Amino acid sequence: MHKIGVIGDMDSILGFKTLGFQVFPAGSSQEAEEQLKKLVSEGYALIYITEQAAGGIQDAIEEYK
Hints:
The protein is an alpha/beta fold. The protein has four helices and three strands. The chain is globular, with a radius of gyration of 11 Å. The termini are far apart.
């Protein structure tokens, strides 16, 4: 089964945990970018990023498109 991760602030991502997704809280752009790189290196098939978290890491997201 493929792994699915969700990155963002805890209030926004907590509901995804009930669906069986792995959640990764990020309180800053730096934390969000670190989480993204970690999930990619761990082979996550699908990574959701909240709009707020994605706003500060557009360059990192473009690397993996």
